[in-house]
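Backbones bend. Shown next:

***
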Amino acid sequence: MSSNLVFYLLIDYPTPNVFFETVNDLVQRGIDTIEFGIPSLKPFLDGPTIAKSHEHVLSQGFSKARYIQVMDELKSWHPHLRRIVMAYSDAIHDYALL
């Protein structure tokens, strides 16, 4: 089943367990594409609610290693899920993703 909906989730928000429960629920409901946000110190294009969610995830110790672990787990659990990664340039630089 293919869906025309694309959901956005900030990685590990509000907790890693709830994040993965949400991904699993979306996939079970037929969502085949999810955009995953990488937390940023300066989410300047987002409003205060999204900025606070970024701060929350960063306060839990988010790192490049955690990003890699999450992407590996997503690929293992949901190999057909299309993953779009959204990141601000500071996050790409801070986590050396390029």
